[in-house]
Amino acid sequence: MATLLHIDSSVFPTEASASRAVTEAFRKHWEEQHPQGTVVYRDLAAEPVPHITADAHLAGFVPESAHTPEQAALFAERVKLIEELEQADAILIGAPMYNYTIPSTLKAWLDNVILMGRTGGENPSAKGTPVTVVASRGGSYAPGTPREGYEYVQNYLEAVLAGGLGLDLEFIVPELTMASQNPAMADLVPLAEASRDRAFEAAATRARQLAERVAA
């Protein structure tokens, strides 16, 4: 049975979150293809994972037999997150842009699952697993726009997910999501609506393609 690891990090509920709305659509199409499959869901806003500590970090570099009780407990939590990553046939991440980058809760999850010599390094344990990131943002940071240089979501996640973990990465980018709420962006509402439509279409297409890929 296929397993999808679905992670949301928006602080807003689905009706007020572009990233959650699109990841929900992706998941719906995925489940239609894999009704008997498994979805492992983590809502990092509702149940954040702990930020990495010295004990949790150092535990990854010493034998488990040498762990202190504190290190053993924290490392067990890291291993649980790592195994969810390794056992997934596909990964779906909602990554809204907050202050030009990803939510701190998503960064905490990444810090826990990146373990050199296992998920990171020369032969990453989840290498090749397809990951779809819904990188929503209130404005536009696309190449050629005035704020292109402030884009630290796709650039960062490209380096970490593809470069560090060896995952097969694809982005879906709903942009200008604040246009309907910001009077100064009123002229951009048609572009925002078009971007949203493309995002939902891309989510449906990507979910079906990955479902077929996993089943092959």
TrEMBL record:
<comment type="function">
    <text>Quinone reductase that provides resistance to thiol-specific stress caused by electrophilic quinones.</text>
</comment>
<dbReference type="InterPro" id="IPR003680">
    <property type="entry name" value="Flavodoxin_fold"/>
</dbReference>
<feature type="binding site">
    <location>
        <position position="10"/>
    </location>
    <ligand>
        <name>FMN</name>
    </ligand>
</feature>
<comment type="similarity">
    <text>Belongs to the azoreductase type 1 family.</text>
</comment>
<dbReference type="InterPro" id="IPR029039">
    <property type="entry name" value="Flavoprotein-like_sf"/>
</dbReference>
<comment type="subunit">
    <text>Homodimer.</text>
</comment>
<keyword id="KW-0288">FMN</keyword>
<dbReference type="InterPro" id="IPR050104">
    <property type="entry name" value="FMN-dep_NADH:Q_OxRdtase_AzoR1"/>
</dbReference>
<feature type="binding site">
    <location>
        <begin position="17"/>
        <end position="19"/>
    </location>
    <ligand>
        <name>FMN</name>
    </ligand>
</feature>
<keyword id="KW-0560">Oxidoreductase</keyword>
<comment type="function">
    <text>Also exhibits azoreductase activity. Catalyzes the reductive cleavage of the azo bond in aromatic azo compounds to the corresponding amines.</text>
</comment>
<keyword id="KW-0285">Flavoprotein</keyword>
<dbReference type="InterPro" id="IPR023048">
    <property type="entry name" value="NADH:quinone_OxRdtase_FMN_depd"/>
</dbReference>
<feature type="domain" description="Flavodoxin-like fold">
    <location>
        <begin position="3"/>
        <end position="161"/>
    </location>
</feature>
<feature type="binding site">
    <location>
        <begin position="136"/>
        <end position="139"/>
    </location>
    <ligand>
        <name>FMN</name>
    </ligand>
</feature>
<protein>
    <recommendedName>
        <fullName>FMN dependent NADH:quinone oxidoreductase</fullName>
        <ecNumber>1.6.5.-</ecNumber>
        <ecNumber>1.7.1.17</ecNumber>
    </recommendedName>
</protein>
<dbReference type="Pfam" id="PF02525">
    <property type="entry name" value="Flavodoxin_2"/>
</dbReference>
<keyword id="KW-0520">NAD</keyword>
